Amino acid sequence: MAGSITNKQFSTLETLQRLLRYREVMFKTIEFADINHAGAIPETVFYSFVIALKDQLSDEQANEVSLVFDVDNLLQSRIINDRRNVDGVTKLLFNTSVFEVFRLCRVSLYRPLTKVSLNAAMTPLWSLMRQVKRGKLSTTPGTDDYLEWVDDLIYRVSDLLGKIRANIAKLQNVGVEFEKSAIADPQGYSQLEVKRESYNMAAKLYQREIDPLKVFLDKHTRYEEGDGIFLTLGYFRSFFQTINDTSRAYLMLSYEVQYLDLFSPIKQVANQVSIYLQKTQQSLHEHSAIDRAYSVVLAAFENTLGGDLRNKFIDMSDLKSLGVSVQCPALGRIAPFRTEKSPSFLDVAFNELATRVQSYAPENSEKVLLSESISKEAAKKLQYSQRLARWVDNFDWPLNKDFLALAHKELSQEWPDFKLPDLFEVQSRLINSPNYQLELRNEYQKMVDDVYELQYRVRHLVSLSNQQTEVK
């Protein structure tokens, strides 16, 4: 009886049912394969997982586990593809389809989509695109050849979509955990070694999985080998439209939308992990600096513990390493400042002085200060600017109207020498006025005269005194 039980083997379906019942062994096997990037698992490692499970079960269940996980049973039920000796180590090559079934049972086991795996997933799509462009595939809807390559296209696109969704679900959980870690210990002064290890893991995860997936889902991405997923789907959509296969064209459009919807979640995960990396890196640098400073001070203090009373105080020379690592060179004497005596330099200097002095002159003053030191043309411009400023201050501005159009109308009628650029000075004066505030409108206007053309966005004046009264 014992011999018949020992030699018993199960069908593929029966074996799968029991593997799912004792799934922890398969979970550990997949984790080992992913961590070691191994396609084959050492038989001794695999059976260590089986033995650890049997120790937790009753005798009857342990006997069933021995039967199910027997290598001969796994080989005949096609759970294992091959059992091979590699460099003196017996290794088991599992059926990847079986691994995929167990990956569906646990989010953490989803196969990571790195840059290499994403490119590998796109390679068949690029191959199909090239063959379509070269006319090597059937373009007659309804024929067997046409349906064959179209079904292959749809399978690969949908399979890749499912894998990306699964990975994003896994990465979202990881992103939330990193975000909580950054908030819980922003200074990073507790469990420093754990934080260093977590930082290295997060950096590796961001570089290997998150960033490549974010780039992959960007609708503008192109690779050296071919277009990104959105441009590829767009090509097939256009192709199906040209041959009047509207159902497949709509299906490609649907896939484009589904891929596009995945960009925001992966971008959010990238932001969460990036913020964690920035905060953790800063805290690690700060803690390393504190540790180094402590070691320097401690060494200087220990030098004072000897019997020599001359060394009872810390010698400042022992703390030199805490100072600035790069010495600042001494500055030489500044060369004497020399002004130019050329007429052009003096004109610019005195015009600038006159403009600044004029800004402090009384508002009702008609005289241009320092007029004897500047040209008549510059003095005339200053006088005109001062007169325009007084006009702006004294004008009774209506509220909630286009004040630039109003100023143009009034000044063009009253001032013969008015020019469109004067409106910039009017606006500048009102912006700095303590009585008004400018309010932008979603309207645009244009003014034209013989020389200038002014296009601007409409602005209204709002009284600040009214706003303050409403607040009170």
Structural class by secondary-structure content = mainly alpha
Q: Count every beta strand, where a strand is a DSSP E run of 2 or more residues.
A: 5
Spatial order of the strands forming the largest sheet: 1-3-2
Largest sheet, described in full?
Answer: 3 strands, antiparallel
Helix content: 55-70%
- DSSP strand (E) fraction? 5-15%
Low-confidence stretches: 1-5
Question: What's the helix-strand series?
Answer: HHHEHHHEEHHHHHHHHHHHEEH
| Inertia-based shape | flat
Count the domains.
Answer: 4
Give the radius of gyration: 39 Å
- For the residues shown, what is the average pLDDT? 80
Beginning-to-end CA distance, first to last residue: 97 Å
Given the structure, what is the number of helices?
Answer: 18
Question: In a nutshell, what does this entry contain?
Answer:
The protein is mostly helical. The chain is built from 18 helices and five strands.
Essential attributes:
4 domains, Arc Repressor Mutant, subunit A, mainly alpha, 60% helix, three-stranded antiparallel sheet, two-stranded antiparallel ribbon, 5 strands, 472 residues
